[in-house]
Every structure is written in C-alpha cells, then in structure tokens.
Amino acid sequence: MSSQPPTRRRLLTLAAGTAAAPLAHGAASAHAATDVAPTAIAARATTVASVSAPPTWFVVPFALDQVTLGNGVFRQKRDLMLEYARTYPADRILAVFRANAGLDTRGARPPGGWETSDGNLRGHYGGHFLTLIAQAYADTRESALKTKLDHLVGALGECQKALAQSGSPRPSHPGYLAAYPETQFILLESYTTYPTIWAPYYTCHKIMRGLLDAHTLAGNGEALEIVSKMGDWVHSRLGRLPKAQLERMWSIYIAGEYGGMNEVMTDLYALTGRAEHLAAARCFDNTALLDACAEDRDILDGRHANQHIPQFTGYLRLFDHTGEEEYAAAARNFWGMVAGPRTYSLGGTGQGEMFRARNAIAATLDDKNAETCATYNTLKLSRQLFFHEPDPAYMDHYERGLTNHILASRRDTRSTTSPLVTYFVGMGPGVVREYDNTGTCCGGTGMENHTKYQDSVYFRSADGSTLYVNLYLASTLRWPERGFVIEQTSDYPAEGVRTLTFREGSGVLDLKLRVPFWATGGFTVTVNGVRQRVVAESGSYLALSRNWQRGDRVSISAPYRLRIERALDDPTVQSVFHGPVLLVAQSQEQGFRMFSFYKDFRLRGDLADAIRPEGRPMHFTTHGMTLAPFFVGDDIRYHAYFRRSEPVVVFGAANSGVPNRTRADGLTFLDVLWAQAPFETSARFVGAVRALADTWLSDGLFTRAERDRVVAAAVGANLRN
C-alpha cells in the first residue's frame, strides 16, 4: 500500500547496493502438572522430548525421525539444504550474538542480508538455523550435526549469561537473549514504528523456536533451560503492561510483528508447566483481528500477511490449553479467508507482503506475489487445524502449497554459502524466480522448509487405531508403538502407482487414504493385487479396515488429468495443472499469453487434445511453448497464468461465426458446454449443444439465427473421440 513504509524486501534490495511446529514436528504437547525448575529441566531433558497430545487433537503427527524420505525430487531438494546445513560456519551465525554480549566473535562475519552487525532484525536467522540443524539431525542422526547444534546452543547460553552479568546496558531480566540490546523492545512499548525498529518479538520468536526445536528434536537439555529463562523475561516485560497498550503494540505495521510468540510460549508452557509462560502467551492476543475472525468478519484487506498468519497457529495452541472456543473459531475462519479467496494457483498468498481484497487474484498478479514465508506459515496452520478436525480440505491445501510453492522455492543447484531460496514468487506474466535470501525472513523459513518435507505424509488417530496417508511421497514410516514399518514407493510429484508395503508388524488398523480433490480421473486401490470395491470420492479419505500382515501391499492409482483453474475475479485468467502439479509456460514475453483450446476438443472434452506431451516427463507443449512443472528450480521466465481467448463458438473445423458470449457468472457458452464432457456419441454432443443453445436463446445471449448457426456447426463438425 502506498501509505505503508517500504517493505523489508525493498530495504534489503536498497541495502544490497551499498553493502560489501506444534511442539517441534513430532510429539504433540501437554503441560506438566507442576512448575519445573531450570535445573530439573536440564536433568530430565537428555533425550528427545516425548509428551502426550492435548485432548483437543483427534489426529496426531509422527515425530520427524519416524518418517524418512525415499528417493525422488523431495529428497534431492532436501539433500541440497543438508549440504548447506553441514557446511555453513556456526561462528558466522553466532557473530551477532557474541558481539552484543561483549564476547569474542572469533573473527567471524555475520551472514549478511538482514543479518548484519547493525541490522534491526539480527538474530532471527540464527533461530532459523537452529531449527534447520535440529531438523537435519532428527532426519539423519548424523553426529556432526548434533555436535554443531550443541555448540550453537552452548554459545547462546554463554551469551545469555554474559548479558545478565555484564551487559551494556544490562537487561531488565537475566533471561534476556538477543543479538541487540533491549532497546527495541523498550521503544516498541512507546509505539515506535518501523523502520526505526523492526520486529523485536518476531526475532525473539525465531530464537525461542530454534531453541525449543533443539530440545524437542535433538534432546538438548540446555536449550530448554535457556528458552525457559527467555520465557520468564517475556513475561516480565509484557505481564505488567495494560491490555490496551499491548493491543496497540501488536497493531503497528511490522514493528508489532511477533511471529508465533503466542505459539512458542504455549509450547514452552507445555514443557515447563509454568503459569507465567501461558500468561505471556495470552499477552499476544491481537484482539481486534482475533475478534473479527472469530465472528467470521473478513478485515484482512491491506494487512501485512505474514505478520498475522502465524498468530492463528498460536491461537489454536492457546485453545488447546485454555479451551476457549474463540481462539479455535478465529483460526478456522481465518484459514477460510486465505485458503481459496486469497490463494494463487501455486498455493501462496499476498502481493508485496500484503493481503489484498478477497477474491482479487487476476487483479493482483505481478512479480511480488506469494511471499514464501507466508506459505510456510499457512501450511503450519493447515496441519494444526487438521489435528483438531481431520477435514481433507486442509491436506488438499497443504499438498498444493508444498508441491507447487515450497518445492519450487529451492534452486536446483548446490551452494554452501546461501540457502538459495525464494522470497516473493511472482505470478504475473513473464516473471522469473530470484533465489538466495541469506539473512532474510524467507531465507530463514526456507532453510526449514526443505528439511521437514516428511512431517505431514502420515498422521495417526489419537487412540492409535487409524493411520492417515495424507501425501503420496516416497517414504518409510516407523511406528514402534504398533510395531509397524510401512514403506511407500512413489514417483510423486510425477504420475504413477503408489504402493504401501507393510515391512514389519501386524494387527488391525484402519488405513485412511486421501483421495485428492484433483483425482477426477479415477482412484483405484488394490490389496495384494485384488482390487477393492470401494467408493472413492475426490476431496475425501477412503478407509480400508483390515488385520494387516507383514508383506501386505496396498497399491493406489490416481491418473493425472490436465485441467485448468480460473482466477476468481476474472475467469479468462487461468492456470493449467497436470494432476496436482502447476504447469507454467516458458516464454520471455512479459504480457499475458493467449491460449485457445476448445477448437481442438473431441468428444471426450479433454485438454490433452490441445496440450501434447513434449517428450520429457511432465513437460508439455501448446501454442508453440513448453509447459514445465513449476517445482523445477530454475531461472527461466514463466507464465503461471495465461489469458483464455475463445471468442467464437467453434467445434473442430466447424466455425459457427457466433460470438462465444459470457453469462453473468463469467462462464462462456463453450465453458458450460464442455463442462458436461465427455460425450459418448456425436448425437449426444449435438443434443447437449442444442439444449444449451436454447438456454442461451431464452436468456437473450443468442438470437434465433445465432442459435441455429451454433446447432448447425455442431452437426457439421461430426466430432469423434
């Protein structure tokens, strides 16, 4: 918005010209019955945390280390990020913390970007890096990663102690830990705006989350002690402030951005049982927006997207521990305001970091759509909502964003100096992805994205009787409580049969297989080669109940079809998909490409009549252009949306000469006609044309002569399959 200060991304660009989970991703949380002293925390936390799910969860995730990725694109992207995790120097991450604490920086330079020696967001990247290393260790169990993580945590503990003992100025509470003095937090309390200060509690959240992940994913007890003290400091600052002051702070653009502080404080409370930590979580209630969303009033237009998305995951966690329905209702309704009405075809949201008007898709396409951080947080919210209510719509949205935005956000080249991830992902015509983002918010979440692909492939019911198969990624699940080891072989995101094999274990289990919303070309299941007589409805879960035995094999086939999705505000602006995969036209042109398909349709009414395989897997050609899967991480100019041009009613070579007029909902005569396909015979096709032409005539969209010419063209076309 023109009335807002420049975006952080814009400031980074200017600077470049002058400068040289729920509780982690596995076990859910439930608070302890009594307060726990820091010494007790350290004593008990020598192994990975394992605490029970809250009673509000009907579905529970598996720990990150219980699911391993198989071969394929997801593993390749993960391996690129693992190389960065192993190689990037820990001392560079620690430099800004040590400098602030008056400790020797060991000659290390800060990472750069926003993570500089004088940056107002410095320290946030270190929190993300902690999560990166913790996730990487949970996934691989590489001892060198654990050593690196323990080194990072130990150094941060030294900084916290140095600040408490001799900080200049000395913090207001010995739990303070940041890469800059407490000044930013003090200034926020007097409503200082961005960019004088940036987002101090956002930075605090990243550090706290990284430390919690170091504890819950890698069993580092010191990390829990450090973050518990930080939680005490947060309460000491905010617990004394009037509610009106807090609400005004959180309403400030960017300066009041606090990431998921309410989530991390609630997760901390789940481990410590300290009432102060839950009280501090409630200090982050952004009441005006919270109340509006609880009442399902959409006031998102013009708000900073990623400033608000993570707040709602925090509200869900507060619901888990307070039982206050307003929190849960707000989260559900907020998700509904974003997923769909404000979501581009790749699964991302926002224009230039901002939410725009509801349903404004075509009107907002440019080179600064879909901030990658926002998708990271929307997917977190989607999976948390699924824990509370296993609605397949949440996982449909998750799959869309994971496959078409997150997977696409990592460049397909090696680097040990940069995460090589995206910030904005433009959806306008002829844009190009830009990678790097060392030190930015999206650089931080980008490091995390590619080391937790497996966190939502499988869930289980709270009572352990049901296994949800949400994503068809090559992977292996180890479920020791039930004795199962289940391997999934799959070429996803490419088309193909997905096979689940029970490698170990036996017993009664309800297997729930997600039938994706896009699976309109059939969904068949066989068990040990025998086809199951089950009804598979797209956008649902199909249940198989059986006493499973070692060696049992479940094979799932869901053929991909080419399909289009229309922009909500302009049906002529469209994207094309192959099953779940967004296809983008590769073209240097920077205006909308015009596509026309209906003239090539046969009776089956399939886009495959107009879009042909190119020869490479998942690549197609149309109108002289290559359509490529968007997840390929390159820097070729692309068109995620095209403009559909079907000006005249044409059937094959038979041109009626009649304008293809549009009715009130934006759909044309040919849109409505071909939505009825396939047609079994040419006679049935002609009958459908005649009936629809009569409707267009009665609605005043055709004259009698035009109606007759359209029917005559249908008869003369003599279409076949």
TrEMBL record:
InterPro entries registered for this protein in UniProt: 6-hairpin_glycosidase_sf, Beta-AFase-like_GH127_cat, Beta-AFase-like_GH127_middle, TAT_signal
Highest taxon in the source lineage: Bacteria
Keyword hit for Signal: yes
Name of the protein in question: DUF1680 family protein
Keyword Signal tagged: yes
Residues in the signal sequence: 1-32
Keywords assigned: Signal
Organism of derivation: Streptomyces umbrinus
Non-reducing end beta-L-arabinofuranosidase-like GH127 catalytic domain: residues covered: 66-455
Domain Non-reducing end beta-L-arabinofuranosidase-like GH127 middle: 466-559
SUPFAM superfamilies: Six-hairpin glycosidases
